[in-house]
From TrEMBL:
<dbReference type="InterPro" id="IPR010406">
    <property type="entry name" value="DUF1003"/>
</dbReference>
<keyword id="KW-1133">Transmembrane helix</keyword>
<dbReference type="Pfam" id="PF06210">
    <property type="entry name" value="DUF1003"/>
</dbReference>
<feature type="transmembrane region" description="Helical">
    <location>
        <begin position="45"/>
        <end position="68"/>
    </location>
</feature>
<feature type="transmembrane region" description="Helical">
    <location>
        <begin position="74"/>
        <end position="94"/>
    </location>
</feature>
<keyword id="KW-0812">Transmembrane</keyword>
<protein>
    <recommendedName>
        <fullName>DUF1003 domain-containing protein</fullName>
    </recommendedName>
</protein>
<keyword id="KW-0472">Membrane</keyword>
<feature type="region of interest" description="Disordered">
    <location>
        <begin position="154"/>
        <end position="178"/>
    </location>
</feature>
Amino acid sequence: MPELLPRRRLDQPGRPRRFLRFEIDPEAFGRFSERLARFLGTGKFLFWQTLLVVVWIVLNLAAASLQWDPYPFILLNLAFSTQAAYAAPLILLAQNRQDDRDRISLEEDRKRASQTKADTEYLARELAALRIAVGEVATRDYLRSELDRLRQDLNAKPRRKASAETIKDNPAWHDRQG
């Protein structure tokens, strides 16, 4: 069977058909949207926007020759609508990126907490094993007291010299000789 052309193969993804070969870096666009969203939430932006609106309204009401947007201020409303149409998606994009960062950070914190818990449990088991082992080990003071008690027992009993007859009367002596 003849090999199909690469553009006709169904088991491989096709190339996107674009009229314009315009590539957008999603990270760069995301960083731009975050910076813009941060700026839109500042007092500086609100100050300049308020100043622009006041100047716009004063010029359109007071200057008869410069009235490019008469009283209902339809052009100003269009500008605000356009600003809102772009600002809302950019703010949502910035929030989504922040959510992704928070999710990654939370997952790392969970892993770190899990590892810390496992390490703590291991150390607790090791400490318990050491306590048990130390409890079974004869300490220097214990050995000293036992040796003192043994010395007292030996000093308290009268010493008898073993004669040859008493040794021969011992059955263990006969077993060794035998």
